[in-house]
Amino acid sequence: MKAAIAHPPAAGVEVADVPNPSLVPGSVRVAVLECGVCGTDRDIVGGKYGRAPDGASFLILGHENLGVVAEVAPGVSGFAAGDLVVATVRRGCGICRFCNSGRSDFCETGKFTERGIGGAHGYFAEEYVERPEYLVKVPGALANVAVLLEPMSVVEKAIFQGQRVLDRKEPTPGQPRTGTPTALVAGTGAIGMLAALVLRVRGWTVTAIDRHDANTLAGALLQEIGARHVNAAAGVSALGTDRFDLVVEATGSVALDFSLVDLLGPNGVLVLTGIPDATAPSTPVPGGALWREVVLGNQAIVGSVNANRSYFESGLRDLTVIEEKWPGLVGRLISARRPLADGPEVLTGRDAGTVKVVLTVSNRGTTRAP
User: Fold this and answer.
1) Residue partners of 215: CB distance under 8 A and separation at least 6
2) Largest Cα–Cα distance of the chain, in whole Å?
3) Residues of 156-181 as b/e, b for ≥16 C-beta within 10 angstroms?
């Protein structure tokens, strides 16, 4: 079968012929329909990280996925040929309490594998084989946007973790909320835009910042959902005196991350989802002033990575609500669909103004819109 592969830690990517995976007892064969491309894929192609499966000389890339069940091994229940599915990414270590209870996103040993990233083949291929517990069924009504479910799961977890920290303030019976909760989303790629959508349908006042004026797809979509867009190319000073209960970061910019701490309101929380370049030059910060405000403001900074199955399931629920509230809007986050053969070109470059580029592998068994 055809697959987009890398040879980490070496840089580079190619579309090559690789062996088809074998259907084993207790598993499901899935024909891949399409896969989203993200910064992690590009970093692996750039030689920054990634790891081939043990005993393999290459890694099949891709972790954002949508497929259709092609074959089910005897004895497997709950799936049938033709079912639309999205596969989760991380596979637990089999050692720690979290991995053994379906929460590998909190793995304590670090000995997990991640499909398309480290130690396990991904989904930029014509098919894959997987155990049913790692497959999430998708309703046909979401076929056109379900490839976004994996990044949506990351958003679901980040917001949930941020809310858990905010909840530490405890309720105040008989006392109304001071005002509508406010959120800042830093970055308007797929993660940032999905975060803005989720927060808006949950009633938050949302501001999103990036380094562009409002004449972009992201700017237009933010306006449609009632969120404010701010061009912060010159710095977060563009936000003036605004402060926020929750800040969701989705850029991986170290300098920006430190600036975002200054935008937290009393008792606020900053959730970091972007992964910075560990080799980047050091960033000078006024550490005393920064940590003073964190302490005096009861503020918190939380990192959030990966997502377990529960966040995929909550992502499906929120995608359904968002589609009902703003029909067709989520699908517009997909800036382009390109064939798998274009994978090397897509993975080694980036078109300005795009939110999400998707590699199409097959149209088999779906009525997804073009």
Assistant:
1) none
2) 65
3) bbbbebbeebeeeeeeeeeeeeeeeb
- Whether the Cβ atoms of residue 302 and residue 283 lie closer than 8 Å to each other: no
DSSP secondary structure string for all residues of 121-171 = --SSBSEEEE-GGGEEE--GGGTTTGGGHHHHHHHHHHHHHHHHHHGGG--
State residue 217 phi and psi, 5-degree precision. -60, -45
> Could you tell me if 79 and 69 are in contact, meaning their C-beta atoms sit under 8 angstroms apart?
yes
Angstrom distance (rounded) from CA 165 to CA 272: 13
Residue 308 above 80 pLDDT? yes
Mean pLDDT in residue range 115-127: 98
Q: Are strands 228-231 and 205-210 parallel, antiparallel or unpaired?
A: parallel
Residue located via tokens 């599915």: 85
Residue 241 has pLDDT above 60, yes or no: yes
- 27: which DSSP letter? -
User: What pLDDT score does 279 carry?
Assistant: 85
Of 281, 301, 278, 297, whose CA–CA distance to 289 is shortest? 297
Instruction: Specify the pTM.
Output: 0.94
pLDDT band at 353 (very low <50, low <70, confident <90, very high): low
* Cis omega (within 30 of 0) for bond into 284: no
Domains of the chain plus CATH, in order, are 2-145+331-360 (3.90.180.10), 154-303 (3.40.50.720)
Contacts of 140 (CB under 8 A, 6+ apart): 84, 366, 367
Percent over 90 (pLDDT), the chain = 90
Identify which of 290, 271, 82 has the alpha carbon closest to the alpha carbon of residue 195. 271
Closest CA to 369 of 38, 99, 34: 34
Q: What's the rounded Cα separation, in Å, for the pair 135 and 153?
A: 13
- Of 5-19, 115-129, 222-236, 337-351, which range is least confident? 337-351
Segment 290-317 shows an average pLDDT of 97
Least confident of 2-11, 110-119, 143-152, 273-282: 273-282
